[in-house]
Amino acid sequence: MGQSLEKYDKMTVSQAIFRNALPAVIAMLMTLIYNLADTFFIGQTHDAYQVAAVSLATPVFLVFMAIGTIFGAGGTSVISRAYGEGKHEYAGKVGSFCMWSCIGIGILLTILMLVFMDPLLSWIGASQQTWTYTKTYLTIVSFCGTFSLLSSCFSNIQRAEGQATRAMMGQIIGNLTNMCLDPLFISGFHWGVAGCALATFLGETLGAVYYLQYYVRGKSALDVRLKNFTVQDHVASNVLAIGIPASLGSLLMSVAQIIMNAKMAAYGDMAVAGIGVAMKIVMITGMISMGIGQGVQPLLGYCAGSKNTKRFHAYMRAAMLFATALGIGLTLLCYLFMNPLVSAFLSEPAAFDYAVEFARILLVTGPLFGIFYVMTNALQAMGAATASLIANVSRQGLVYIPMLFVLGSLFQADGLVWAQPAADIVSFLVSIVMYRVVSRKKLQENTNEMVHEPSYAHTNR
Fold first, then answer.
1. What per-residue confidence (pLDDT) applies to 458?
2. How far apart are CA 445 and CA 193, in angstroms?
3. Where are the transmembrane segments (predicted)?
4. Where do the domains of the chain lie?
5. Distance of CA 335 to the CA centre of its chain
6. What confidence score (pLDDT) does residue 296 get?
7. What pLDDT score was predicted for residue 445?
């Protein structure tokens, strides 16, 4: 499978990024559509309380995916660098560690969620009108926790094997299943949030099964059988050192959304429904930009492992240009089509007005998303655990959560929303500083040892 990544050295920089990043972007686009579909079809019930309930429950469920990212992002970084160094057996140990850790932790999280469901509902701000809806949704999706972890993990790791298309297909299968079942369960059977949750459960399960059968059938060079599981030889520490910083951004994002929803609940359920829809619209820019970073990470990791610094910098320049153009274009489209987008989810006037106002605020920093995600994925690719941690937690933890309390107390509901753009600007600057520091240290300290690119890689720079 290391050969699968080596093939990108034979391509021009633009071709390599296009071939590896496009499937990741498509996968994130499918994930985006899947996330929008849940809220869209719940919106067709014309019940803003059900929309608010899904908004309250979604960040809780995303905790599963965030934990899966620990092993997905960490495993991707370690495996791609191991292939670059020719350590194929070690890569297999890492794959096995990631898989079985996801299974064990997923089961544990499901049990904890079911046991502590009522205190959880109180904490996230469920009102008397949204309590039953939110509890129904979370109870159903909690049973697919293990599958969510596995799907999140292997959608990343298979890109480290050079299987970008397969990684994309697993996400597409899961997301299409969810999207096809949403209208049937929600509108056709009139199951409301229960149908939405059941569609999510089946989508996550099928996506995970698709990834697992690839390993069960022996198609992969990674030996993920239980007998190959180990935490020794720095397998666990190497994965967690990169995976925890990478996932903290997603984990803190879920926690921050929970805090946001709980504080926004003071302004009524319509405000909760409005911020939920506004965040969905901003995801159009954010998640696609995230796909660029995820797609280029294995290429950067392979270059870092093989000490090909010239190729590394060429990938970075091209990815940054692409991400910037995409971020600006998507942000403009969201502004231009704001009212039609919001009306697809909400018909209640008060909730509609909240959503439009909040989305316009959140999109102020939309053009910065792509650069931020390329930078943070580059830090992960270089194995820079501390720098990756600082960059990721600055956006959703170190800055955003405090800003929620400070700006929320000063400017009420609008202040809660402005907390995110403020955090975006700070984290953007932090990521640039971290990348400059780390790249100089990691890629230039051993310049004389770097491997020169083959002549065919010098074309079309």
1. 42
2. 55
3. 21-42, 48-73, 94-117, 137-155, 167-186, 192-214, 235-259, 271-293, 314-338, 358-376, 397-413, 419-438
4. 13-453
5. 23
6. 85
7. 56
Token readout for 123 is: 């904490």
Q: Is the dihedral of CA 327, 31, 71, 22 positive or negative?
A: negative
SS (H, E, C) the chain: CHHHHHHHHHCCHHHHHHHHHHHHHHHHHHHHHHHHHHHHHHHCCCCHHHHHHHHHHHHHHHHHHHHHHHHHHHHHHHHHHHHHCCCHHHHHHHHHHHHHHHHHHHHHHHHHHHHCHHHHHHHCCCCCCCHHHHHHHHHHHHCCHHHHHHHHHHHHHHHHCCCHHHHHHHHHHHHHHHHHHHHHHHHHCCCCHHHHHHHHHHHHHHHHHHHHHHHHCCCCCCCCCHHHCCCCCCHHHHHHHHHHHHHHHHHHHHHHHHHHHHHHHHHCHHHHHHHHHHHHHHHHHHHHHHHHHHHHHHHHHHHHHCCCHHHHHHHHHHHHHHHHHHHHHHHHHHHHCHHHHHHCCCCCHHHHHHHHHHHHHHHHHHHHHHHHHHHHHHHHHCCCHHHHHHHHHHHHHHCHHHHHHHHHHHHHHHHHHHHHHHHHHHHHHHHHHHHHHHHHHHHHCCHHHCCCCCHHHHCCC
Where on the phi/psi map is residue 223: left (φ > 0), alpha (ψ -120 to 50), or beta?
beta
Spans in the chain with pLDDT lower than 70: 1-9, 385, 443-461
At 246 the pLDDT is 73
Residue 395: predicted pLDDT: 79
What's the token pair of residue 217?
């059938």
- Tokens 């560690």 found at: 97
Residues constituting the chain: 461
Cα 21 to the chain's mean position, in Å? 15
Contacts of 22 (CB under 8 A, 6+ apart): 295
Amino acid at 221: A
Spatial contact of 126 and 177, defined as CB atoms under 8 Å apart: no
Tokens of 262: 């709980």
CA atoms within 13 A on the CB side of 42: 30
Claim: this prediction has a pTM higher than 0.70 = yes
What is the separation of C-alpha 395 from the centre of its chain, rounded to a whole number of angstroms?
A: 14
Cβ atoms within 10 A of the Cβ of 347, count?
A: 15
Residue-wise pLDDT for 407-428, tens only, equals 999 999 999 999 999 999 998 9
